[in-house]
Amino acid sequence: MIIRKRLAAGACALLAALAAGIAPANAADEPSKNSPKVELVLDVSGSMRARDVDGQSRMAAAQQAFNEVIDAVPDDVRLGIRTLGANYPGDDKELGCKDSKQLYPVGPVNRTEAKAAVATLRPTGWTPIGYALRGADADLDTGGGTRRIVLITDGEDSCGQPDPCDVARELAAKGTHLTVDTLGLTQDDKTREQLSCIAEATGGTYTTVRHTKELSGRVKQLVRRAADPVETPKATQGAAECAKAPELGAGVYTDRATFGQHRWYRVKVTPGQELRTSVSVGADRAVDPDYGVLVRAVGEGGQELVRGTDAGSGRTDVMSAGLRYPIAEGKKGEDERARTVCLEVSHSFSAPASVKRDPGLPVELAVDLVDAPDDPSDLAAFGLGRGWVLLAVLVVTGLIAGLLWGWLSRWRVSVWRTN
């Protein structure tokens, strides 16, 4: 009898220990209150019936992409889904412009339930983007963790009130660290302008997508970015000349430059440091097919130190260029004061006369200061120091290629004569 009681007590103790061990493990698998939060806001309006995405409807493409995104959500991200235009099919504008509901609550993701909810969606009604943004902001709450909205739509707001750009500025002004990224399934100018405005007001990004793979890949990237947030760009305003330019430290900055405008910035670089700079100019409106971007580093005496350029043609959303400029550490007793390096940023985008000039195109400037290499001339082979090294490499390469081509041509002629 005593043995049975001891066995029973031991079994109870074992079950209690197992329960205690299991509970914390399950709790550890769930995102905490400080985990990043993301809400996907999907346009389910009637225009999503259009069949122009990889041979299927925009709605089917979005559903397929959402399923892939749901499968790839990081464990530490709380995800939600909100729709707009999914429920009211009528013509009453007042009702249609309030048609936005949360499809899946923000929290730990049950992949089966989330996919089942997405599968029920059918293109239906209006496009109340501004109203949906306010709803998504409420869904994300203001607790700990980063807050991100990813808006996917195939057109501009069809309601007018509240204006989506005004709503985005309103949400940004609340200071709750909310970022709104926008993805457009069409390329018309009005949609591009409105979605760019929403994104820029909150420090987010705008992307045009035309294929299912692009859509799923971009949304996955944004969800992962919420889990590992990047530095929020700081607003700055470049000057028309270096002497009046703002002084920048290491960081990411945003500005705007109109067509044909040159913007100047200053950076202090001490001996022993290397300046690394990249600049991106976004085409947030219709532009002509040929374009380029230039960033130059200029010394205090006005001499050019190094430049980075890129150019292209055809359709683009962004163009980038970068440069590196090291200052070798001086010998003991030499001047160790910081040197002023002026950065000039310009672009050659142009546009038809009907396209608005203001505000200018969005510019993002990244500045970093790292330890310089022991011998800055080591960078010359990459076009970052003395150009004659790269020229010599190109000449030798061309000579070798010419010799090989000549030998092959003679060999082919001799074979042809023999046959």
Explain what the structure shows:
The chain is globular and about 70 Å long. Strand 12 (290-298) and strand 13 (304-313) form a beta hairpin. It has 419 residues and is an alpha/beta fold. Strands 3-2-1-4-5-6 form a six-stranded mixed β-sheet, with helices on both faces. Strands 7-9-16-11-14 form a five-stranded mixed β-sheet, with no helix packed on it. A five-stranded mixed β-sheet has the order 8-10-15-12-13, with no helix packed on it. Helix 2 runs antiparallel to helix 4, helix 2 (58-72) packs parallel to helix 8 (212-227) and helix 6 (164-173) runs parallel beside helix 7 (189-201). Helix content is 33%, strand content 28%. The protein has two domains: 29-227, Rossmann fold, CATH 3.40.50; 234-382, Jelly Rolls (Sandwich). The N and C termini lie far apart (105 Å).
How would you briefly describe this protein structure?
The protein is of the alpha/beta class and 419 residues long. It has nine helices and 16 strands.
